[in-house]
């Protein structure tokens, strides 16, 4: 019985990563403004926002950790919370990959946006799901878009491309009038993969690499980002 339930939940995850039908109500997403645009990346200022987050450790696979974390989040929004309340799925689904310490490999945080309405409802996840609410202060993020499926064998290349763009930009550009360095990025080489579409969509897919911008763009409202 247990396995049947797990299998059904799992298939639902595969087929409903994001409910895409045109009749579906609009999907909630965190709010941002674009503060800088280049041909191959942009910088967005995200407002303060909250993410329900599942930590996954002990694997080196982005795909496996995303499936594991999303499975727990999927149960939460389908009623595995102390109020047994269903929550509409938001977009995008994030996987943050952080090299927090060299001892136990990488930490993967799989996250879904929690809109203020559902945050106010204080829907505590069932403890066995081991989820945390992660609150982000308003901050700036450098973003590169890519299409297709986000997979173990292509995300590194996309992350590298964004880092190269930012480095190139650093050495060749000069946005602040007083000559300060315009962009520096997150320590610990951490980055995030954002996925917007259900896996049943084989074409027209949107994914992004996000890297926190910790300095620069002060004129546009980006403040240095402090890790909490
Ligand atoms: C990902 O999960 C699959 C299925 O459980 C497993 O065969 C594979 O070895 C895992 N990959 C990594 C890199 O852990
Ligand atoms: C960055 O790494 C240090 C140790 O190297 C760790 O203490 C810190 O928590 C890490 N930051 C994040 C955001 O993981
Ligand atoms: C994590 O950081 C440590 C120390 O900086 C480094 O030795 C290790 O190779 C990194 N691990 C990965 C998977 O990037
Ligand atoms: C959910 O339960 C918590 C207590 O566990 C309560 O504070 C909150 O008001 C409830 N939310 C809703 C929407 O019923
Ligand atoms: C930055 O701008 C100043 C004045 O506009 C210029 O003198 C300087 O060479 C520029 N630096 C770079 C790295 O482009
Ligand atoms: C450069 O200008 C920014 C605001 O545009 C300011 O925050 C920063 O302190 C200035 N740096 C120097 C060295 O004056
Ligand atoms: C994938 O998601 C993006 C962002 O929400 C959307 O613009 C695009 O139309 C979606 N693709 C498909 C095939 O639904």
Give the gist of this structure.
Belongs to the HEBP family. By secondary structure, the chain is of the alpha+beta class.
Largest sheet: 10 strands, antiparallel
The first-to-last residue Cα distance is 42 Å
Measured by DSSP, the beta-strand proportion falls in 25-35%
Mean pLDDT: 81
Give the overall form: globular
CATH topology name, in short, is: Multidrug-efflux Transporter 1 Regulator Bmrr, Chain A
Which structural class do the helices and strands define? alpha+beta
Helical fraction equals 10-25%
**From the alpha-carbon coordinates, what is the Rg to the nearest angstrom?**
18 Å
Q: Which molecules are bound in this entry?
A: 2-acetamido-2-deoxy-beta-D-glucopyranose
What's the CATH C level?
Alpha Beta
Corresponding CATH superfamily: Regulatory factor, effector binding domain
Low-confidence stretches: 1-23, 176-182
In the CATH hierarchy, what is the architecture at level 2? Alpha-Beta Barrel
């Amino acid at each position: 019985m247990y396995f049947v339930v797990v299998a059904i939940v799992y298939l639902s995850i595969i087929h409903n990563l994001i409910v895409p039908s045109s009749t579906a109500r609009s999907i909630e997403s965190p709010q941002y403004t674009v503060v800088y645009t280049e041909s191959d990346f942009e910088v967005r200022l995200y407002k303060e926002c909250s993410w329900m987050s599942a930590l996954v450790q002990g694997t080196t696979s982005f795909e496996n950790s995303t499936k594991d974390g999303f499975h727990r989040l999927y149960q939460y929004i389908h009623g595995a919370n102390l109020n047994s309340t269903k929550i509409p799925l938001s977009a995008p689904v994030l996987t943050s990959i952080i090299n927090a310490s060299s001892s136990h490999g990488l930490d993967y945080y799989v996250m879904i946006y929690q809109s203020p309405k559902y945050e106010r409802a204080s829907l505590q996840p069932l403890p066995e799901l081991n989820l945390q609410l992660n609150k982000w202060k308003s901050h700036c993020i450098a973003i590169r878009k890519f299409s297709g499926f986000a997979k173990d064998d292509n995300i590194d290349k996309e992350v590298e491309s964004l880092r190269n763009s930012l480095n190139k930009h650093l050495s060749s550009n000069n946005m602040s009038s007083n000559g300060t360095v315009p962009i520096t990025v997150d320590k610990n080489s951490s980055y995030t993969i954002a996925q917007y579409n259900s896996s049943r969509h084989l074409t027209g897919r949107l994914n992004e690499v996000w890297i926190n911008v910790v300095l620069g763009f002060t004129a546009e409202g980006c403040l240095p980002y402090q890790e909490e």
